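Sample A.
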Amino acid sequence: MFILGLLLPICYIPGYTGASIPTQWAVLSLALPFLLHCASISRVWLGFIAFAILGTLWAPQVYDSIFGIWVVVLWGLSFQLGQSSEDPTSLYKGLAYGLSVSSFIAIFQWFGYTPLPVAYGNNVAGLLYNRTVLSAASALLILCLIEHRLWLYIPSLLPGLILSGSRGGWVVLICGIAVRIHWSLVIAQLALVALIFGTSASSSDTERSLIWASAIHGLNWLGWSANSFIGIYVLTTHSLIHPEFAHNDYLQLGFEFGSASLFLFSIPILSLVWRPTLAVFGFIILATFYFPLYTPLTAFICCFALGHSLRGFSPSGLLIRHCRPDLLPWAHDPRPEYDPAWRSTLPVQPRTS
């Protein structure tokens, strides 16, 4: 997995790679089936993929829907890889090395040397074309590294996070660190962000509000099919814009998959209950104002982290863990495998008769 982590952030084709970075989707398509070997996707995921395929029947644009189904399959494979991985540290190390390349290039871009095409004049984006993608991926990976105490790999990611100038990465990182201290700090920070957004919103914030309103207006029970939001145009006070993404994954998933999106919403909720991690919490925050599931690097990190968080999950184990944890002494063991040694931890009551 180290090789996958190393290649994914640097598989760049000048003049072709854009914000969605299709080369990374291609690398994931080749690598994930190879890494999973004979492991199969859960029936629930297969059911959701089947619903996404069925959505082509009412898709506004079939080609866009087919691309969206491809992405949905990669979500499921990334999630499955996380569930089947005992130790993700080798993957995170590879991602750190690969993303450090963009972080290193960002230093030169900051000083005006920009040999690579970037989005909308944002001159600090590394190999990822868009500075927000660089910031979000760096923040999520730093949370993963903190979770596994891989401190030495964090400094090389900081130039990309700092020089990109994107606010989203900092919100995710600070919230992720604050949640380890106390939940009240996260609530206070989010309240502050909401206050700033409501009182001194920039033009981009205003556009984002209009995009959210368009997504809410289009919600229905069946959805509009996978990747259908890419065909939406939003009328602002000055022009007609093509946002491509809803800039809120919850709204976009609801727009595209309707009530079936509740399955996807349940995954991060169960992750927080079963085995909460910083990366999962960071994804939950990031998805409220960005589109981490629709850019391949952030989508892979998030889906892998969600899968690893739910490693060994079972509904019965969830009920026993939170209702009667004394009956399941191995429930808090991060290893999902059955461990016969738990018997030695049970209290022994001497028989008197």
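Sample B.
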Amino acid sequence: MQKVINFSGGKTSAYMTITEYKEGDIVLFCDTGREHPKTYKFINDFEAHENIPITRIGYPGGFEKFLADRGNKTLPNRMRRMCTETLKVITARRYMVSIGHKNYENLIGFRYDEPKRVLGHKEKLKCVKTLFPLYDKKITKGQINEFWSSKAYNLEIPAILGNCTLCFMKGKNAIIAILREYPELADEWIADEEKNMKKGHTYFPIACF
């Protein structure tokens, strides 16, 4: 069965790719369009150093088009995580089907110290088998950091900036900490909320706290 390795652009998924990849596997990076510039640099460095090809895919038109296609009726938040579903899960599924793979194994980089993420996972498609190799091998964050400390390249941003720069899943305190150091990252997220504010939509509704 075809094996798909989910590469998020962070150190954990990169470690999983290095340790699990075999020729013929497909390594997918689903670009939300809201990643930090140094995430893209890390991906480029990874390909150059590891000689592992990464297939980069994304929602046509990016994050803004995703919101526009919804008619700007609402914004994703902790209670409505349709961005992850649409920009990553569905986008990856459409790509795999487009290249002729309806059935495949899907590797996700949840670690042994993230049991809630593994145990809380619900399989949505019978034709896709999700595997958590790092969890099964009892790999922790400390081991991941130790691995990267000896590499010739590394992710040049703190873990807090991984994935979408101001993703609501980071939590309020993390968002505040990021904006203290990188206030310029707020511009596109503010623009989204300004388009939706009259409708009462925000990335951080009170009910989420």
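B remarks: Residues 82-98 form the longest helix (17 residues). The chain has nine helices and five strands.
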